[in-house]
Amino acid sequence: MSKTNDSLMQRRHAAVARGVSQIHPIFVQRAENATVWDVEGRQYIDFAGGIAVLNTGHRHPKVMEAVKRQMEQFTHTCFQVLAYEPYVELCEKLNTLVPGDFAKKTLLVTTGSEALENAVKIARAATGRAGVIAFTGGYHGRTMMTLSMNGKVSPYSAGMGLMPGGVYRAQFPCPLHGVSDDDAIASIERIFKNDAEPRDIAAIVIEPVQGEGGFYVASPAFMKKLRELCDLHGIVLVADEVQSGAGRTGTFFAMEQMGVAPDLTTFAKSIAGGFPVAGVCGRAEMMDAIAPGGLGGTYAGNPLACAAALAVIEVFEEENLLARSSTLGEMIMGRLRDIAAQDKRIGDVRGLGAMVACELFTSECRPDAELAAKVVALARDKGLVLLSCGQYGNVIRILVPLTASDMEVQAGMDIIAACFAELAGS
């Protein structure tokens, strides 16, 4: 009996915890670059990239070869027991890639959530303070501390009770929804006045381009004000580049376009082309604030993932993928603006590099999550994998591999245009 998506979904429902969601009722059989095939042989263009994990595409040959070579040597020792060069080499590379004209050191872990947890630990140790300021719409992970930093309860922490305290919420600047840069800074000042003194705040954690929150881009002017505020009060500025990093925005890290450098930068997702590695890179003196044994993990900096990440960095250099990211972004935003000119339900097209989104509204100017869901579902039926996001679920985001051809990208955009045209009366 051949496997089908339906039969596998039945097994999934019987065996997998309900809390693990699934956007598309599809089971993948194989994948190459920007194309995936399901177990029934159907082909899809991938505009999701494993949620921003596949900037270098599925199974990039250079990444696959690097992992194969590493597998033939060893797959695990635990770096804290027996060290290995790929871990050190990757840290050396990241120390040069992360923005900031100061001495840096790097910690490797396994997931984005771990990276954020450790960034907070490092900031607390470096400052002797405990408080954290995060932003509305922010997403930082599914562990307990990161759930408290997320700017959205449902579905991430719904039904789980109150999260750890000491986290305060500022407004993320978003002119589309009436929050100016000055409003956002004023919201931090209100926290200082109403909730916690600056001397009690260890870190301000921000995504320079929000991921799950809707692809809103912080302005360089706002980041400059935020940097000045942190410097004034001795607060650690943490840039969460888990989704925006590894070349998605046209620079290897989005903060390179913000005019200021964070003290700590977190990374994960596309850094290793589909293999699990994440980490924190920042000021050497801050990174060294925790004594030996206070950082690490059994699988942290796995040698296979380190080999993959080193290959990803080489691919970016050899294939000029940063320039490709900017070119793709212009192409995708141009097509979305053409669609928006004909469909007023698209209220905004935005992005940085190839981290692009459009936001949908009803005729009454209310967020239209229903339309976003319909576009995602119809696109799937037409052979395109899409994702939605945003605090209201009304944003369509595009995370196509940077290695996709122009023909593949245009074919995907044609499907998006066809979806909006078909749903014009809905």
UniProtKB/TrEMBL annotation:
Its cofactor is pyridoxal 5'-phosphate. Belongs to the class-III pyridoxal-phosphate-dependent aminotransferase family. Its EC number is 2.6.1.19. Keywords: Aminotransferase, Pyridoxal phosphate, Transferase. It comes from Halopseudomonas laoshanensis. This is 4-aminobutyrate--2-oxoglutarate transaminase. One of its GO terms (biological process) is gamma-aminobutyric acid metabolic process. It comes from the Bacteria. The lineage of its organism: Bacteria, Pseudomonadati, Pseudomonadota, Gammaproteobacteria, Pseudomonadales. The keyword Transferase applies. GO terms for molecular function: 4-aminobutyrate:2-oxoglutarate transaminase activity; identical protein binding; pyridoxal phosphate binding. The keyword Membrane does not apply. InterPro entries: 4NH2But_aminotransferase_bac, Aminotrans_3, Aminotrans_3_PPA_site, Class-III_PLP-dep_AT, PyrdxlP-dep_Trfase, PyrdxlP-dep_Trfase_major, PyrdxlP-dep_Trfase_small. Gene3D superfamilies: Aspartate Aminotransferase, domain 1, Type I PLP-dependent aspartate aminotransferase-like (Major domain). Pfam families: Aminotran_3 (PF00202).
